[in-house]
Amino acid sequence: MVNLRAPIRFTLFGKIILLVIVSSIVPMAGAVLLWILIYQHISWTALAGVCALACITLVAAYALAKHLTRPIRALMGGVERIAKGDFSPVPEMATDDELHDLSLAYNRMVEDLRRFGEYRFDELVAEKAKTEGIIYSSEDGVVLTDQQGHVQLINPKALEVLGLMDENRESVSGRPIWSFVKDDRMSVALRESVEITTPHASREVNLSAEGVRRYYTVAVSRITPPEASASNVWVVLVLRNITAEKELDQLKDDFLQSLTHDLRSPMTAVRGYLQVLSEEMAGPVNPEQKKMLHIMENASTKLLHIVSNLLDTAKMSAGKLRLNLAECNLRQLVPNTVEILHTEAAKKKITLTLDMPDEIPILKVDPTMIERVLINLIGNAIKFTPEGGFVTVKFTDLADRVQGQVTDTGIGFASEFMSRIFKKFEQVSGTRGGTGLGLAICKFIVDAHLGEINVRSKSGEGTTFTFIIPKGLEQNDKGEVFRVRTSAITPAAA
């Protein structure tokens, strides 16, 4: 279909002929017309001569145009060949003019492009060989897929991890990775990892069976080339065997559990005898001795708290720490817990406030554990807030959950620490005291209640811990906690 709006385009060949016609034939035709007008008669001899001269001029114009455009057409053909990867030179133009110089410059350019292309090809081949060498010799399984999970590249270690040693890379290429994985647990983990939308994520997969412990992490990274569209995304999956790390963690947990269990009994005995001495049941003590006994009792209380945290952490790792759900009135539990810590806040002249609605539902939770979460979070806020600062405890009743927040105006911490703050034995850089277990225990307790806990912080600007406890929790005879949907929940007044 002809596009009538497109501009009219004349080739160089046509422009040369048009130029000759305008500059020679048109003047001749004008001279003949002027003769006729002056002498009032037609000279057929002159008219025939003009026609013959016009024909000769057209033939000469055609030959000139063809001569001038031949080199240009040759250069155009060379450009088209370069676009197809053919770097053959064009014949030199024997015109001894600027076109000849242009053909020489063009051939020099083609030669430079050919050499550069060979160099880049060799360089790309070398880089590809290096990359493949790294990937295929890696001790971690590496799989590259498209956004739909179709395998583009897989290394031998990944074939081994996925139980595909009998397969070759070509047989699995182009197929969804989860379609040929034999273990359902790994298949589900791979599918969920490919479908995840965050740029980076990691999950742990337990492949233990028949007395053989096997643990892997599946780390996923989504890669979008700078020049590609958002739909053109590559997914890199890295499968790492962490069985040795898990066994080492288990050894540490077993050691801690044994150690703390052995420490708890003598520490309880020490505290009992300290109480006997403090109450003068074994005889009178002077004021100086009472002061010493008070210091010893405080120190033993802190030590017992540390031992209890270590023991609970070991139980958490072993899955032996169970919740005891009961109906809990947060309007009583929360204020009482905050009141316990008022004295500690007052010592640093910190303003500790509670923001809580007058009515909040009766929840089924483990009251002791929720109290422990509050004590840990508020205690940390007081610890890391300078004198004269503020700590605010806020509770909000949402549709299907209750949200608690502890906000301070303390020192905060850097963003790089954010991903490790809920791990065991982790402490903010530059701080002293504590075991680094409080927040790990908080996370375990909130997770055990099927809730969530997160943190927002900025160095020098304070920290906010937010935890959510869902409504409608129940517990079966095995101690497992599950959630049921309830249409009405009894509110609790102050």
Structure write-up:
The longest helix is centred in the N-terminal third of the chain and has 40 residues, at 44-83. Strand 3 and strand 4 (215-223) form a beta hairpin. The protein is of the alpha+beta class. Helices cover 49% and strands 17% of the residues. Helix 8 crosses helix 11 (438-448) and helix 9 (330-347) packs parallel to helix 10. It contains eleven helices and 16 strands. The strands form five sheets. A five-stranded antiparallel β-sheet has the order 2-1-5-4-3, with helices on both faces. Strands 7-10-11-13-12 form a five-stranded mixed β-sheet, with helices on one face. Strands 6-9 form a two-stranded antiparallel sheet. The radius of gyration is 43 Å and the shape is elongated.
For the sheet with most strands, the description reads: 5 strands, antiparallel
| Strand portion | 15-25%
The percentage helix is 40-55%
Q: Which blocks of ≥5 consecutive residues have pLDDT under 50?
A: none
Figure out the total of helices.
11
For the terminal residues, how far apart are their CA atoms?
82 Å
- From the alpha-carbon coordinates, what is the Rg to the nearest angstrom? 43 Å
Give the helix/strand class: alpha+beta
Number of strands: 16
Spell the H/E element sequence.
HHHEEHHHEEEHHEHEEEHEEHEEEEE
Order the strands across the largest sheet as they lie in space.
2-1-5-4-3
Molecular shape: elongated
Mean pLDDT: 78
Summarize the entry for a quick read.
The chain has 494 residues and is α+β, with helices and mostly antiparallel strands.
Q: What is the fold's blueprint, element by element?
A:
Elements: H1 12-39, H2 44-83, H3 98-136, E1 141-145, E2 151-154, H4 156-161, H5 169-172, H6 184-195, E3 200-206, E4 215-223, E5 234-241, H7 243-278, H8 287-318, E6 326-328, H9 330-347, E7 351-355, E8 359-361, E9 363-365, H10 367-383, E10 390-397, E11 401-408, H11 438-448, E12 452-457, E13 463-470, E14 473-475, E15 481-483, E16 491-493
Parallel strand pairs: 7-10
Antiparallel strand pairs: 1-2, 1-5, 3-4, 4-5, 6-9, 8-16, 10-11, 11-13, 12-13, 14-15
